[in-house]
Each structure stands twice: as C-alpha cells, then as structure tokens.
Amino acid sequence: xxxxxxxxxxxxxxxxAFHFARRHPSAGRSATTxxxxxxxxxxxxxxxxxxxxxxxxxxNPSRAVSTFVWLLALSYLYLxxxxxxxxxxxxxxxxxxxxxxIPVVYPxxxxxxxxLDSPWFWVHVSSLLFAYxxxxxxxxxxxxxxxxxxxxxxxxxxxxxxxxPSLQILDVMNARAVTIGWSFxxxxxxxxxxxxxxxxxxxxxxxxxxxxxxxxxxxFVALLTWCVYSFALVSRRSMGWTGRRAAWLAAVGFGIVxxxxxxxxxxxxxSHTFY
Amino acid sequence: MHLFLLGVSHRTAPLxxxxxxxxxxxxxxxxxxxxxxxPSAAESVVLSTCNRSExxxxxxxxxxxxxxxxxxxxxxxxxxxxxxxxxxxxxEDAAAAGHLFRVAAGLDSLVVGEPQILGQVKDAFxxxxxxxxxxxxxxxxxxxxxxxxxxxxxxxxxxxxxxxxSFAAVALARKIFGRLQGRxxxxxGSGDISTLTAQHLRSQGVGDIxxxxxxxxxxxxxAAAVAGRAVPWEEMATALQTTDIVLxxxxxxxxxxxxxxxxxxxxxxxxxxxxxxxxAVPRDVEVSVGEIEQxxxxxxxxxxxxxxxxxxxxxxxxxxxEAIVAEELSRFSSWxxxxxxxxxxxxxxxxxxxxxxxxxxxxxxxLAGLPPEVRARVDEVTRLVVEKLLLEPTEQLKAxxxxxxxxxxxDAINRVFRLRPDxxxxxxxxxxxxxxxxxRTGDE
Lengths: 275, 444
Fold this sequence. Notes:
heterodimer, A: 2 domains, 9 helices, B: 444 residues, alpha/beta, Beta Polymerase, domain 2, Rossmann fold, six-stranded parallel sheet, four-stranded antiparallel sheet, 57% helix, 12% strand, elongated
C-alpha cells in the first residue's frame, strides 16, 4: 500500500529537480500538484491503516517512518503554499523518497501490546513525529542557507544564487522550524515520561517499561537531541548564533534525529520495542 | 490589410538623429492623432523609447503608407527627409510582426533582455487604444507581442541578472537581506555609482540612508537627492555601528574601514549580516574585513565581474528566446492566413444559404400545408445540412500552410462557385477597424 505514495513522491521529486534546474514555472506547478496527489494518496494509506488497527499506525518502526514521511510532506506543502517558494522541494523530496522506501521494503505489523492503549502514548508519538518533521525542514533550510552563503561569501554567484531564496528568509524560516520542532519535542518527551510512570504502575511486569531509563540508547539520544535544539534556541537569542552557525546546528540536530529514528530504533533500543 | 512598420533604432541611427525623431518627449497621443489623419494608416501605434522610434500601421497600400509616413515624420519633427531616410528601416507583415515580437522580448534592446521595454510597448499600445487608433490587426499583433515578452521572460533567463554595477549591488543586497524595507544604509563619500546605487536602494524601500563625506556640502547634496540624512565625517564610526549596508566611494589613499572597526562592532551587534559595497579605487575597506563571519564585502571589480557574467548568461539565452519568437511568429502567421481565407468562406456560406432559401421559397406552396412548427423544423434541418457540408472546407481553407497555396485554393473556389468575395457585404474582421467604422459613420 505504501508503494503508490512512494511512486508519486518520486515523480514529484523528478519534477522538482527539473523545475530547479530549468526554472520552468509550469514544471514547478506540476511538481506541487503531484506532491499534493502523493500526500493525498499517503493520507488514504494512513487512513486505511488507522481503520485497520483502530489508531494512527506508528507503534511499529516502519509504520512510524511512513507516518513521519506523511507529516513531513504535509509540513513542506504548508511551507511552500504559504511562502510561494519551491526551491526547497528538490532537497525535501529525496528525504521523503529515501525514507518511504523503508515501509515499502519492510512493511512490518502494527503492535499488539495492550500497554500502549493510552491516549498519552499517542500524544507522545505524534508530538515527536511532528517535531522530527519540523527538524527535517530546518535541516534542509540550513543546508540551503549554507549553499547560498558560500556562493555570496566567496563571490562566486552561480547555480544556487539565482535559485535559492535570500539568506535572511532561509535563516528566519530555519528559526521558526526549530522553535516549532523544539516545542513538540518537549511536549513529546514530557508526556512520554509521565505516561511511562503511569504505565509502570498499571503493568509492573512489562520489560519494555522497565527498560525506560537514561541508559537506554533511544532515550539518551532523544535527550541529547533536546539539548542540541535547546542550545540552538538559546544561542540564537543570547549568543547571536544566527546564520551559518544556526544552519549547522539544524543539520547536526537532524543527523542525531535520524540516527535515533532509524538504526537505534530498529537495532539497539530495548525500551521502545512493542512489536 | 497589411501590417507595416517604419522607424529608426539604435541599430540603424546615431543617437543625435534618434533624439530628433523622438516622440516620447512630446505628447505621444498627439502624434497618434496626427497620424490618424493619413488615409493610408487605418490603424496606428507609435513606439518611442530612447533607443527607437517606430510607427506600426495597418494599411491596404504599404507603398503609399511608406510615402505618407516619411512625410509625417518630416513634418512632425520638422526635419528634411534626406536627414533620416538613409537610417530608416521598413518591414511588412510577418517581418514587422517578428520585429515587434523581438522588441517586446528584449532581443532588440541595446542591453539584451532589459525589462523596461515590455512596459514601454504596452504603454505605446495603450496610448493608441485610448485614441481609438489601434484596430483589430494592431490589437492582435500587440497583444500577441505581450505574450511573447512574458513567455521569453518566464521560460528563459534572458532578463535575469543585473547588468549594471548599481543594480548588481542592489540584487546582492536583496539576496542577503530579502526585503530591504527598513534596512539602514550608510553612504561614505559620493560619486556616480554610489549615487545611483543609493537611489536604487531608496526605490527598494530601505529605511534610514545616512551620508557622510569629508566635505559636508557633498553629503548634503547627495542626501537631498536620495531623501537621506547627512552627518559630519567624524560620526562615520558611530553610524557604522548600526548600519546594514555600507556603500563607500571616497578618494582616500588608505583604507578607512578596517577589521578593528568591525570586530568590535560585530561583538556589539552580535551576528547580523553587514553588506559592504566598496566602489572606491584605491579601496576604502581593508581586504581582511571580508573574512569576518557575516560580513559580505564586494569591491568594484567583484561587481563588474557579476555584471559581465550576467551579460554572458543573457547572451547564452538568446537562441532559446529567438526560438520562442520564431514559434510565436509561425503561429501568428497561421492566424493571419486563416483570416485571409475569410472573405471566400463568407461568400461561400452566403452562396449556399442563398440557394437554400431560394429552394425553400420555391417549395413554399408545397410546404404551406405543414404546421408552423414542422416548417420551422424543415428550415432548421436545411440550415444544419448546409452547415455540415461547409464545415470541413472552411477548416481546410483556414489551415492552408502558406499564402501561395491559399491564393490557389481560394481562387479555385471563387471560380467554381462564381463567388465575388471582395463584393461581399459581410464585413471581415480586418476591415472593420474602429476608425473605419468611424469614417463610415461620418460619411453617413
């Protein structure tokens, strides 16, 4: 079922690349239209899976990746439609396509652990996935900032100079994405801690819940992520770390998010395995 | 009806002659109205910029139109014809339309791809339209040219990139700061480039423009020109602390802005970008200033390099733009040919309809017994049969590939059906210009 959104994302990616290279307005409009169809198809897939398991499918890592891709696509579309700026599409679409391959290749089964039947769990996961989508956007904005900065600073105005927005716009959008992402990350982590404490009382024998501690790699890296983005916010306000430094922080932060979201989630953690 | 063009441009005439033949400094509408008095110009549009003076007319007799336009130019500008005749160029029909398309696309401009020309072509047409001088043919060809201009701008990079130092500086500022509204500018010294750049920045809506010069009177003169504020030379360092864009062009032999100046400032201002445009020779700003994070330092050679690069990029886009012009010209020519077949088509349909009516009249006695609704139905059916019979030939005639073939076909049809399309009472679109209509009304 995840194949159709993947194909549509890939098609939109090709059109965004063509639009970026040739700056043909109709190619840009077609790219946005195809991405809208891809997001709609993905909404349908997520909706079907929700009806099947009676909740939004993100307890299984592959389905969580699929839901993350869906949220990222919607967040990007919101950004594009509100700023009328398509240049970032060529950077976002490869992320969408690359991650959407995972649920296609490893579909996985949704969880069956009754310990997760709590509204707090769903607030926890959905907040974190939305935070990760915002961080992905911030990282792409940071990357494009660095490309644009390099050309202007070195006085070699070339390929990216004419295609990317101004440094100021990229920096402001980066700050906004990090702030939104950090807010959801904080909510997600706090709700996760509260829910774990509550669930431990209800299910004292659950090995997953017992493993929820700072020495669990997933929890440790999640807190590290929170520290990195907290530093990005504080340093921007009180140390003047805007521009290129903020861009680097956004890129490093998302690198850590990806590390936690994929290899650690799949192979290392013992606390977040309810499947 | 023919499209006819006569004019001078930067390619055919020197500047002093272009100045003497310029219409834009006088009332362009007055020129259009004066042209309307000439019988050979059924429709007319005058396009006049600093690089060209061109008159477009729709005329049945191009040779006569040429003579009358030369007399018009001579009388209007009070110049003997021999002073400008060797510099005139003349184009007809497809060549004239192609020229207008190239002009609107910016391909015929002194600086290829310059953006103002499309607006000037629109203004010229608007002036003529307001005076009812632009009829169906000129309306069609000018509106077509607007689309060509838009296509070339959206599908090629012909108009992209600044091609003057001052515009290049403003374009860079926009890439650094985005919108320039409210940005603070410091101008140090004065000169042509800094004045022009400050004026461009002002037109972009920057906030405070502070000007300082060793001679306060110079700073005050520039401040008056760009709605800025002059401050004494001693306040330069203070002004530097709060500015976003610095424009410097003094005659100083030693740098006046050093790394020490800005590192202290950078600490106080945290990490806000600072764009320094140093157009002075020798340079006013120490080279190492450009190494400071968030300081973007450009000197006159850097900006000239951007201009040269942009010009060469524009030149590389010329072929793509010419291809769009050629494609649109081919479509326009097809449209013109399809109009050329209209008198024959109208006459042919008239002949068939006459026959249909005559036959119905002949059978009137036999049909008299029928109820009125059945008679109406018979009338409708016969009309539909004629329509269907003529549908395919009409389409074929309109789609003939070239003028020669069209003449052969229309001539054959005229002979076979004994048509006299020129005498057709039905007006053809090209012949029903507002002015022609006005004249008819006047005659009545």
